[in-house]
Amino acid sequence: MGRNQHSKDRIYITATEWAIEYGGKKRARNVSQRQLPFDSCALSLQQFETPVSTSDGVVFDILHIVPFLKKHKCNPINSEPMRYKDLVHLNMAKNAAGRWHCPVTFKTFTDNSKVVFVRTTGNVYAWEAVEQLNIKAKNWKDLLTEEPFKRSDIIAIQDPSDADLCSRRDISNFTHLKTMREEAATERAAEKNSAKIRATPSQTALFAEIEASREQQKADDRAKAVAREEALIAELDDIPDLKAIRLLKPTAEDVNPGTNQTTGGASYSLTSSGVEVATEATLRLATVDEIRTARWKCMRKIGKKGYVQVTTNFGNLNLEIHCDFVPQTAENFLGLCAKGNYDGLSFHRLIPGFMLQGGCPDGNGTGGASIWGEPFTDEFDSRLVHNGRGVVSMANSGPNTNRSQFFICFRACRHLDNAHAIFAKVVGGSSVLDRIEKVPRDKSDKPTQDVKIIRTTVFTNPIDEATAMLEGLIRERQQAAQEELSRRSRATGGQQAAKPQSLIEAEAREAAASRKGWFSNATPSGEGGGGPSSSSSSSGSGSGSGGVGKYMGAKGKAVGTTTLAALPPSSSSSSSSSS
After folding, report:
1. pTM above 0.85, yes or no
2. Which residues are catalytic?
3. Where would a tag sit more exposed on the chain, N or C end, judged by fewer CB atoms within 10 A?
């Protein structure tokens, strides 16, 4: 008993007690913003591949925003009017790991980085690079292209310290998502109310007709969306040399047997409510790179060379192209020659006793592009070495930077092996090469007399033959897959035709295992040798003495022939091996 025994006795309750124990007013929670990741499209909420941005720093993917603008003609974030020309194409760089980074500081972008772009060029940089090299240095030229710009042309697409930008990139403030939620709530309410209506048979038929009309409208909308997307993709990625193959819609399995990759639609619909429900696994279509790689394999199998004549102002040089050894590099050179990209260009570098370099449209060794627009990887073959005069190789600025420039060796240059990709050799016009080597040059190794390529003529190009060969292989594989599907449908009565073979075998194994008893490897119901025979009991290796049935292999040969015949082939073989 102390003096302060009843010091906390009160005839009232505190605000904390009222809020916690008696259900009083709770303090408003500070709900954090749901920021959109910097590498995601604000319309589809998925990672972008071809980013474009608005003037206030909201980024979209061109494949999603163009169809939306054609239909709605407004910004999906705030419903304000917007046109396609209001968007700025962003030029973002990736590192070797495939992650977006700053092309100046090479700093990888994260969700906490401050990322900006220049409106006039669309080049994307880290804020540190622009702050140090442009703002503080008062250098108002783009760091990559040196195009002039103003301070107001620097636009941030991600800045954790900018509250206004964070609010614009907050998913909960996106107008199109709010509209979608309201429409979904309206549909649910309508379905709930319609369920309470007692309808006559005629009304039920009318409701069914209306529902069918709605489903048909949805199907038509999806078909139109797919058609618009395909048309957009065809417009952005027009590849005429692969058009015949793309029309076949080959899967990755058709192009490269053994790939067996699906679109992932079934797993997406299982884990996400934002995509359409898919209950079947569908093989994904082959990418352009996969089709090209398969065609290069066909070029190796064909084993034919290509032949090109380079007409210069000194005479003709006949080249033999190694399409059977380095098909990718050969396709690049043959494609540039067929398009006439080398016509009218001059050889800008000449070093007697070493090499002759050309193929630069700028004439200084800094320009040029591959047939695909982007630099491509080095392609080496142990059978191709710089072992003599007339070897033709790709010029580059480092590993995997091949474009359009090439050089012709005047002598053996073995130190260039595995550094420059060899793709051809001079088989005619050695006297022309001798005359060109004697042309005088200046201090920068540029010929003082113009050595120009007048035109290039392609005599033999096995690419078309390889394309036809790949197209035939794809048709054969598609026909074989269709015949196999028809055979399974006939064998199973059409019930398991849509199931993959792996799923059918797994279900058969599980069904066979469930028929086994706990202490027996035979079926307990007497099917297929269910009861122990006298011979098995006397030997001690029968069904009753064999281990734990469906979890452990039985000793001896307890499983009868009838049980083995009831299992599918894969299960039969596995049971035989375990017994």
Report:
1. no
2. 349, 354, 357, 396, 407, 416, 420
3. N
